[in-house]
């Protein structure tokens, strides 16, 4: 079988990480099987679909590296790839179903349908269409149309038996047909419903495998009914589990960022996010976790996708992203870090290239996302310095902080070289001369220079901050300690 898969988002917002995982699994399956990855935009919901959302989805897929073989911008012989441009195709297949007696016109108004549902609810009966328009004759239809009623087109479902399919992920799935109803194929305005357009497009685009979220399982029996009525062979279905937040509920905005664009803006690498998304429901074995996209293309197998819900673990994402950052050269990490800062408004011309490389090198494994460069490097990037209240309170309880910081400021001001070696030597010599442990002096200096009790190496901090700012911060901290510490006059 020639493998053809599709990712078919609705352009009503940004690309959600759940959709991105679906796109990734389709892409990887196509690449692993030498197949074709099709991108189709399901934009028949004109009220909610926007060009901005289309651009956001395409940009996110490109950023992740999921290049489609057919679709917007790529072309292909199964286009157009926007459902809004395929209306004639849907109308033609709908007319064929009606002519074959497998579809009929429904003239019910929204108010009549709502009243029907209310009665069913009051009777505690299943809420589904009761087929009242199924037996209308030509004269009755003519009278309703003369009265100005525009009909929808409903599928004439066979209520007996059940619909069964073998799902690659979930195994055998069965639905009793009598729990379904005569669903709409074309709305009164002529637009197709999801289930009908999806089947027509998958057939016309020769899709061999439909890989999608398990929230579509309830749609599958309706779609299979359309395939049977049209005499078409259905594709192979694989319904992947939903993604849950850490609290066990479906992933949503209350769990944090949920769109690919948001994670890009938060400083994640496409390699890190792709690696993480692949592991949300799939595993190669019980030990391998780090994959590039190229590696995933070689080893991905749909049969290894779990039917159990996947839990979105932000800490795991951070770790994986940090691992992919570590795989890069220092020059690559520095380039990404400075690009991120520039995109967020930082003036890179304030420092020479070697300074930026030194900053990234000093931050080391603290950087798990590009935003961490700003977060952990704020002491060197921004003035005035923000001092953690808990770190400062700890300093107030230590004796002789001010004179030690003042003498260190004088030593740094007098250091002609102001290099890492000379800064370390000056600091250690000062501690020895004052008869204190180096750690006592360095701990106070770290708070004064970074505002934190934990930071990169102190001498790297001094060099990055620079002589003028380092001396000024040490002096300012000494003055503040004299003003606030109960030990200042002890």
Question: How would you characterize the overall build of this protein?
Answer:
It is a single chain. With 490 residues, the protein is mainly alpha-helical. The protein folds into 3 domains: 1-71 and 241-327, Rossmann fold (3-Layer(aba) Sandwich), CATH 3.40.50.620; 87-240, 3-Layer(aba) Sandwich (Rossmann fold), CATH 3.40.50.620; 389-484, Arc Repressor Mutant, subunit A. Helices cover 48% and strands 9% of the residues. It is built from 21 helices and 11 strands. It has helices spanning 17-32, 51-64, 87-99, 110-122, 138-146, 194-204, 220-230, 260-265, 270-278, 293-299, 314-326, 330-343, 353-363, 371-376, 378-381, 389-396, 401-414, 420-434, 438-450, 458-465, 467-484; strands at residues 4-7, 36-39, 103-106, 152-155, 162-167, 171-176, 184-186, 209-213, 236-240, 243-244, 310-311. The strands form 5 sheets. Strands 3-4-7 form a 3-stranded antiparallel beta sheet. A hairpin with a 3-residue loop joins strand 5 and strand 6. The radius of gyration is 32 Å and the shape is elongated. It starts with a strand and ends in a 6-residue tail after the last helix. The mean pLDDT is 96.
């Amino acid at each position: 079988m020639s493998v053809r898969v599709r990712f078919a988002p609705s352009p009503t917002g940004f690309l959600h990480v759940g959709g991105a995982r679906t796109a990734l699994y389709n892409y990887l399956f196509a690449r692993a099987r030498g197949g074709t990855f099709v991108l189709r935009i399901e934009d028949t919901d004109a009220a909610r679909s926007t060009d901005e959302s289309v651009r956001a989805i395409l940009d996110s897929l490109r950023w992740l590296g999921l290049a489609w073989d057919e679709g917007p911008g790529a072309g292909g012989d199964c286009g157009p790839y926007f459902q809004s441009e395929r209306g004639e195709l849907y109308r033609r297949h709908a007319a064929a179903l009606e002519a074959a007696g497998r579809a009929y016109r429904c003239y019910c108004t929204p108010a009549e349908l709502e009243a029907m549902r209310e009665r069913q609810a009051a009777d505690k009966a299943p809420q589904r269409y009761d087929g009242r328009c199924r037996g209308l004759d030509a004269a009755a239809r003519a009278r309703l149309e003369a009265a100005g009623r525009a009909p929808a087109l409903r599928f004439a479902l066979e209520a007996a038996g059940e619909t069964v399919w073998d799902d690659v992920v979930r195994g055998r799935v069965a639905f009793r047909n009598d729990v379904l109803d005569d669903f709409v194929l074309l709305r009164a305005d002529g637009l197709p419903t999801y289930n009908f357009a999806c089947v027509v497009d998958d057939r016309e685009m020769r899709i061999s495998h439909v890989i999608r979220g398990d929230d579509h399982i309830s749609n599958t029996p309706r779609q299979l009914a359309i395939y049977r009525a049209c005499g078409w062979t259905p594709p192979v279905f694989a319904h992947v589990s939903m993604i849950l937040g850490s609290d066990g509920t479906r992933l949503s905005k209350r769990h944090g960022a949920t769109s690919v664009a948001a994670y890009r803006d938060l400083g994640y690498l496409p390699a890190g996010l792709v690696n993480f998304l692949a592991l949300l429901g799939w595993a190669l074995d019980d030990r391998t976790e780090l994959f590039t996209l190229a590696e995933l293309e070689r080893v991905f197998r749909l049969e290894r996708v779990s039917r159990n819900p996947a839990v979105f673990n932000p800490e795991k994402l951070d770790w994986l992203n940090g691992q992919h950052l570590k795989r890069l050269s220092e020059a690559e990490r520095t380039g990404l870090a400075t690009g991120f800062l520039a995109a967020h408004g930082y003036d890179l011309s304030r420092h020479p290239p070697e300074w930026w490389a030194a900053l990234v090198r000093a931050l080391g494994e603290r950087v798990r996302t590009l935003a961490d460069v700003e977060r952990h490097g704020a002491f060197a990037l921004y003035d005035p310095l923000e001092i953690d209240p808990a770190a400062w309170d700890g300093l107030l309880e230590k004796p002789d902080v001010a004179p030690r910081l003042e003498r260190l400021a004088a030593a740094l001001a007098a250091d002609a070289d102001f290099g890492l070696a000379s800064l370390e030597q000056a600091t250690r010599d000062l501690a020895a001369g004052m008869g204190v442990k180096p750690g006592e002096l360095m701990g106070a200096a770290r708070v004064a220079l970074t505002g934190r009790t934990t930071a990169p190496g102190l001498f790297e901090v001094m060099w990055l901050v620079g002589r003028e700012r380092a001396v000024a911060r040490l002096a300012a901290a000494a003055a503040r300690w004299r003003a606030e510490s109960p030990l200042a006059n002890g």
